[in-house]
Amino acid sequence: MINVIWLILMTSGIVYAGINGRIEFVTASAINAATNAVELAINLIGVMCLWLGIMKIAELSGLIKAVSYILNPLVGLLFPSIPKNHPAMGAIILTISANMLGLGNAVTPLGIKAMQELQTLNSQKDTATPAMCTLLALCTTGFTLVPATIIALRSAAGSVNPTEIVGPTLVVSLFATIFVLIVDRLCRAVWKR
């Protein structure tokens, strides 16, 4: 469906430019956008390498285990249906930790792994469990202490102060996470799951 929407938007833009006799602007804009995308990607490589390196150092130094240890009681409350030492619990903690550090690129594979582990506990393989829904909600809101990916994007785009987003991101992601957890619990109460 999204491909159809993009096709309609692109086609209508090209037709509109052709009707107004400005088709050369479409070509120039396409080339400029492609050039800007490549430049942004190259600028992002360095910044993402820095943050992923910091994440690796945090993992090797034991900081990730410390964060996991701190998060374990909270995650146990959020996911009461998961056995304490099940691999899903570790995958969920890693996913939440990566979200807290703002590493969106790392969250996706960790979240998929957590969902796969949760699926092993699922008796109805074609239906999402409440734990799966809670994890999806948490990953969607993504409570973030350090929005590393956003800082990297802002830095690559030439922002004068790329870290000024930290405060607002912290507040918004905290309130979004609290709200989604309340809605999650209300939905569980309504549907008795």
UniProtKB/TrEMBL annotation:
Q: What is this protein called?
A: Spore maturation protein A
**Which ranges carry the Nucleoside transporter/FeoB GTPase Gate domain?**
42-151
Which lineage ranks, top first, belong to the organism behind this chain? Bacteria, Bacillati, Bacillota, Negativicutes, Selenomonadales
Q: Which UniProt keywords apply?
A: Membrane, Transmembrane, Transmembrane helix
User: What species is this protein from?
Assistant: Sporomusa malonica
Report TM segments: 33-54, 88-112, 133-153, 165-183
